[in-house]
## 1
Amino acid sequence: MEEKKKFQITRGMLILTILVVLILIVIIMIIIKSVQNSKPKYTAADFKNLENRMVEESYIYLSQNNITLTTEQVTIKLSSLLEKNGGGIVESKVTKICAGYVIAQKLEKENYTAYLNCGKNYKTPGYISNDNKVTTHKVTSAKDKVAPVITINGLTEMNVAFASEYKDQGAVAIDNKDGNITSKIITEGKVDTLTSGMYEIVYRVSDKAGNKARVKRKVIVLPGVTTIPVIVTTTGITNRPITTRTNQPTRTTTRKITVTTTTKVTTPPRITILGDNPTILNVGQSYFDGGFSATDVTGKNINSSVSVNSSVNTAVAGTYYVTYTVKDAWQNQTSARRTVIVKSTYIPVTGFTLTPNSVELEVGNTKVIFASITPSNATNKSISWGSSNEAVASVSNGTITARARGKAVITASAADGKTATIVVNVK
């Protein structure tokens, strides 16, 4: 019997097999690319996140450029908020296809609204385009009926010495809508220190809505040195008959009143405040008193008799006063007051994230977690760390150490109530 021929791969079969494999690879690549193309490049969350970041960075932009919000709208372009232009927003695939801006305004409170135009992908309702030069949006609000508040610098009632120099310290005006309108204050009245009596200085101001405010300061110019008569003897003029010899006429003599005078000083001493008044500080800044100069009516220096009463607390924003009081040798008293304004420069933490958001470690290994605080110039950047299970994973200053198999949650806490967590799986 003849032996069966063994199976052999011919050259044609090999070529055919290679062609089939290549065709299958091409088909698979086409399917993968089709699936990838069907996935959206951008999600609604991408655009919402950008809008939120624009609002966060706008607050910092205004602070860095010393812009105070009023009822007038301020427009901040997205391009100004990008990191390459000094902002805090890192360029991404979304920023590259979007144009936008933020409208900032102070009505009852500060208000920030972000607007984006990302072509066919996304557009914020209300977005207005004017050849990429956005000006303002009209905002309708209830008519302002609240009058400005005028605060007098120094004392509202004060005494000044006769023939001394009177220098009015002015006032400050703040409006709930227009902000600081001190420059619009109209001052009326004049003090003549050469004429004793009472004078009034009146401060008037109006806001843009026509609401008016009016306050006044009372200034009393004291009399100068006076002479007070004092009767030393009280014998009046009398006629006393004097007896003479008989048949002689009666003679009358006159006793005179003796009167002397004494001088009493009634002009009060004078205090001159040295340095800035008002003095303006930032929270946390040290306060150093600019000093004073006190003299009595004769020009004698009586600084050593001055008492100083201060309420300044630079740890808390607000308006404080330093009062200087002095008495001269005749017990005449006068006071002067310095205004100290402590301004807040605190920039709060608005965003806080950890990278990565989950970690897998083997026992004994470590991993460094990176924390990101927004804005980058926040006043308080301190972070505290904690673990839900120290036996599984401990953390110190962002470095996680795997202790035993299991899971633990690492929590990081930043200022202003911001927290972030990651899950650690130890194998």
Note: Residues 11-38 form the longest helix (28 residues).
## 2
Amino acid sequence: MDSEAGLEGTAALLARAEVRLARARALLARLGLVGRWARAGAEAHLVGSVATGLLGPHLDIDLHVYTAALRPGSGFAIAAALAPLRLDYRDGSRTEERCLEWHLWVRDGAGETWQIDVIQLAADSPYRGFVERRSARIRAALTDETRAAILRLKEAAPAGRAIPGIQFCAAVLRDGVRTWGAFERWLAGHPLEGILEWCP
């Protein structure tokens, strides 16, 4: 591939990502998810691939919400009001993360299905603010080249294979991975157990 073709490929890749991000923001606005949690007394933050600008073909939106206590009532009420196609709930209040999780699948205006992951943490959680700070630092560390490298790997991932977004970021930004083959080898050598606490 010559340099001109590479530049065109990068431009197209970044343009596709911008379209996905615009759709994510439109869906969030239509659902009013941040506002719903705020009215329930929570502090809500957008994190993950939408916050970093690294949204790939897997259409997902991640929120962290903080409440004084871990009670599931508000989360179930908000989820019910959204009438998702599917809802999965996990009580992790007795784990190291001390959280409650809601995973919702909803359709956007174009009829495509999005996964929305809402992680509720206690206000005194030891992880309070960590993912938000990391998302901001990843976004600040990105160049067009590294952003394109991460997006290219996300687009190369087999459909249905669940790979946490932070692994793409660590592989590219920390360890210089650029190809799918190299990323496969990187994954084999970096099994994810628990929370990956790397931050650029």
Note: Confidence is low (pLDDT under 50) at residues 1-6.
## 3
Amino acid sequence: MDNKKLIASCSFGKDSLAAIIVSEENGHHIDEAVYCRIMFDAETSAELPEHEEFIHCKAIPLLESRYGIKTTTVQAEKTYSDYFYTQYENGGKVGRIYGFPFLRGPWCNTRLKVRPINAWQKGVGEYTAVVGIAADEQKRAEKKTVNGKFLPLVDYGVTESQAFEKCKREGLLSPAYNGGRTRLGCWFCHNQRVAELRRLRREHPELWQKLLALDTESPVTFKPCKTIADLDFRFETEEAQISLFDI
């Protein structure tokens, strides 16, 4: 470990928080945490509401009071919805809006996360990035094991399940994991499993309605050959069948 300051990239999921906890437990003080906040629209975060509350009302204050770690929040100037309605200016799609991101080469990650983080990095100077990848995520770990990165969960042999339990013991486990959820991310992500979309519709109908509203405008289907309306019909049909069996 060099003498550069340690900065943890933190989504406030179990792995990124466990990486901070393990670092502190083993004498590697984190100088700063950086969180990239993504917005769906001007009022609505990309985080599930329960995770959004956890981040700002519990996790950020606790990192500072317990470990002396301040969190820097970076954010793109535009929202997901802003880019959704952005029109192409070149090529054969001039005048057409982006709509939902493509499965491959999606515009959302670059514009909403990579660019604001890169802009922040230009002013922060040299540092070692603390990355929350668990010891049993071998393929991900191999890609990130390079100079300038510190993988505390890998170095100290902490698996995903152990990271979960460690966060739980330390009072730093997001309530968004309740009910068996194992991964967190943008609630509107087109890469998430159908089961998570079904749960989103059931638990947060107000967010589901926001996706339905965009669905009618998008020149690109939400999933390959599947619109939000298609999924909505599927989920409604499933609920009707369950209700029939209950009778």
Note: The radius of gyration is 20 Å.
## 4
Amino acid sequence: MALKNFDGAVVVITGGASGIGLASAKACYERGAHIVLADRDSQRLPWAAQQVQQSNPAKSASVLTFTVDVTDEAQVNTLMQQALGINGTIDLVITCAGLGGGGTIDAFTASEMRAVLDVNFMGTFLCMKAALPIMRQQHSGHFAFLSSVAGKIGSPLLSGYCASKWAVRGFSAAVRAELYGTGIDITTVYPAWVDTPMLHQGGEAADLLNIEALLTPEQVAQGIVQAVEQGQHDLTLAPNQDIALLLEIMKTDPDKAERLTGESFQRRLQAKIAQAGD
């Protein structure tokens, strides 16, 4: 169900200490929502809460912080119970906690793959599992799950990240159908590259793929809020013409989209090898 009125609503945001999570907290707080910021970065959380409150000093809604590892089921369950105590409801859960990382599939270790899947997918799953019984009891609620354009197209050197974001996409579609008619709904968010700390940790993969920031966290946050207000299921933010075109091709001819992606990657790879040999 679309969340038409944020005033007095309780919004839980994972990954809330920075990036899209923090920007989303500000956007919801400015609309009068009580904010629950969850992040594993305990040192940054108090600063983040202050930033949220200062975004609109005229508001008197609550801003609470909790140090949470979204891969820990007990911690996530406790988070949702604490959020419930604010106003007796959980109206919106935005899952922004995310982990990047890349490299060739030959060098990508099993432990690295598990870490990415645990945070990006299992963290999303655990948040839904913990909040869903509360939303079922109140017969309303909304989830906004952060996927990525990498959850719609394949990106070389980002196999783990893509796998986790495709998992979020499939999970969203299946559960959205399962919850049809219950008053509980899901917006799945597919942004192109966003100017967040995770983007700047891309290393060689980001360099080879020519990744650059195309969106600000604030742009994504405003898109999320509007999509939730309108009950929009798919929020794809792809301001880059090449990415937008590839997404369109992917809908009708996935083989062509993969071929174009592979050709582009190999050209960059060969150019880098030639440059290193000079």
Note: Strands lie at 10-14, 34-39, 63-67, 92-95, 141-146, 184-191, 234-237.
